[in-house]
Amino acid sequence: MASSHRDTRVHKREQFSGGPQKKNNRIILIIASVGLALIGLLYLQSTSKSSTGKVHASMVKASGGFIAIPLADLNNGLAKFLDYTTANGKAIQLFAIKSSDGVYRAAANACDVCYRSKMGYHQEGDDMVCNKCGRHFPSKDVNVITGGCNPDGVPATVQGDKLVIATADLDPRTELF
């Protein structure tokens, strides 16, 4: 009888504690939730924008009249936003990207239409999107289609394992910032 009473208590404990199967399900649910939260956080960081609409940028310095961006930084297809200060002390922002057609491109983070808002662009998939008006521009059109709200393309060349931009090509764009 004592054994029967103990079995009943063990059975009731399992019943109210969720039993081994429910515990395993909870653990799986917790792990999946944490995993999804981490994926969401990584996505937000990759497309993070400040409250002004500007995407967080890395500071870049020129050497010998050129800015050099490692191609490895662009091979993931994500735009790399850069802050640069011209020789006359004017801060500008640009971005570089390996477009969907495999070409490395660069542009000022401003356009002829919306530059006064100082909001620039952000990336959504393969498109660069104006933070002011919301228009989408395919990455393969950066530095090909110009004017209007299109990103203001900057000449850039691939030299070895770097995308190289002449600072002389950035100086005329200071009026956009």
Please describe what this structure looks like.
By secondary structure, this protein is an alpha+beta fold. It has 2 domains: 2-46; 58-176, 3-layer Sandwich (Rieske Iron-sulfur Protein), CATH 2.102.10.10. The protein contains 2 helices and 11 strands, in the order H-H-E-E-E-E-E-E-E-E-E-E-E. The strands form 3 sheets. A 5-stranded mixed β-sheet has the order 1-3-4-5-9, with no helix packed on it. Strands 2-11-10 form a 3-stranded antiparallel β-sheet, with no helix packed on it. Strands 6-7-8 form a 3-stranded antiparallel β-sheet, with no helix packed on it. Strand 4 (91-98) and strand 5 form a beta hairpin. Helix 1 (2-17) packs parallel to helix 2 (19-46). The longest helix has 28 residues, at 19-46. The radius of gyration is 26 Å and the shape is elongated.
Please supply descriptive tags for the structure shown above:
177 residues, alpha+beta, Rieske Iron-sulfur Protein, 2 domains, 5-stranded mixed beta sheet, 3-stranded antiparallel beta sheet, 2 helices, elongated
- Enumerate the strands of the largest sheet in spatial order, edge to edge or round the barrel: 1-3-4-5-9
The total domain count is 2
Percent in strands: 25-35%
Shape: elongated
| CATH-defined topology of the largest domain | Rieske Iron-sulfur Protein
SS elements, strand count:
11
CATH architecture of the largest domain: 3-layer Sandwich
Percent helix, as a range, is 10-25%
* Secondary-structure content class: alpha+beta
Quickly count the helices: 2
The CATH homology group name of the largest domain: Rieske [2Fe-2S] iron-sulphur domain
Mean pLDDT score, rounded? 77
In sequence order, what are the helices and strands, one letter per element? HHEEEEEEEEEEE
Tell me the major beta sheet: 5 strands, mixed
Alpha-carbon distance between the termini?
A: 87 Å
- What does the radius of gyration come to? 26 Å
Low-confidence spans: pLDDT under 50, at least 5 residues?
45-54
CATH class category name of the largest domain:
Mainly Beta
